[in-house]
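Methods: holo model generation. Sequences were used as deposited, without trimming of termini or removal of tags, and paired with ligand SMILES retrieved from the corresponding compound records. Each pair was processed once, and we did not select among multiple samples. The sequence and guanosine-5'-triphosphate SMILES for this entry were:
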Amino acid sequence: MSTIMLSALRMTYSKAIVFRAVYYSSQPEHASKTINKVVNVAIIGAPNSGKSTLINNIVERKICAASNKVHTTTKLVRAMCFQNDTQIIFLDTPGVATEKEQKRYKLPESMINACHKSLRCADVIGVVHDISNKFTKDNLHSDVVNMLHSTQNIPSFLIINKIDRLESKRQLLSVIRNLTNGMIAGNPVQDPDTDSRKKKRERGYSHFSDIFLVSALNGDGVKDIKDYLISNAKPASLHFSPEEWTDQTPESLIQEAVRAKFLDFLAQELPYNLKIELEYYEDLEEKIICSVAVECPSDRIARLISGAGGGRLQQIKSQTRNDLVDLFKKPVVISIQLKVKPKP
Ligand SMILES: Nc1nc2c(ncn2[C@@H]2O[C@H](COP(=O)(O)OP(=O)(O)OP(=O)(O)O)[C@@H](O)[C@H]2O)c(=O)[nH]1
Ligand SMILES: [Mg+2]
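and the model returned the structure below.
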């Protein structure tokens, strides 16, 4: 299925340009003086909606750790790509989390403010929404709506994700109506059932400039988002060089990639309680060598994680390596060791 752009209206970036002038005034010395085009895009949304997967697909590198569990992303991560003269700087954000979830998953305090922080550097906001979740598909997360209302001066667009999991396209129009309160770029969404629009409570946000329907996993519709962002980038000198693709250190990227695989392979809260540390890292010209230690709360849990004959740990290692090869674009030798937390 290809992307449907429901509005042809162009965004206005006047406010963002004013902000960018301030943002770039503190450029590092290495910043290029050539005038290119730049767009800073904050990607926000509910946990597990596919934010990180989407960014990785657009920048064609697994920079942002992604897993099948909620709260994979715990801090702001920048992922950049450069095409012709345009740099797109994505800000991947943690999914919005309640205080209860923060305690349950032992999430870092910094995570709570990360989303708000990302909005302060954004020229445009992309909201990712999971249409495959039958409980939440018709409502935008209330925290997301509040954030959008508090930054109404920044243009925003809606990305309806996981369309590959839709069995029927018939529900699409009603979902779009709910998520936009029947309004896109100031125009009412075509609504055959006009009476139903009158009394509905607001479930979404009425000021999206555009809507995209995509599958971040298989790439359907993703190129349209990239083209859209490129066409909306504004002249600016580069904050990052064209060769740079993230603001994260290799150490942090490796740790997050390992953490994501543990989240993928282990059930419930267990993987959230593991302490993951990079013990060795060497970037040789032809390959990367690294060693990661994972601290388990007890010997029993270490055995459980390892799986029969160490099979599960082998799978985790092999899939992490694949992701890191995709990330660094060169061979990676990785060892992952389980260590039991010493008793006090
Ligand atoms: N079927 C399908 N699955 C997807 C799609 N996009 C993402 N996923 C899956 O959804 C899960 C969550 O993806 P993430 O990219 O980690 O989601 P996120 O929004 O970054 O999650 P948090 O960082 O935890 O907030 C992963 O298992 C992805 O493979 C999609 O378009 N289709
Ligand atoms: Mg994420």
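The pocket of magnesium ion (ligand 2) is lined by residues 51-52, 64, 66, 72-73, 92 (CB under 6 Å).
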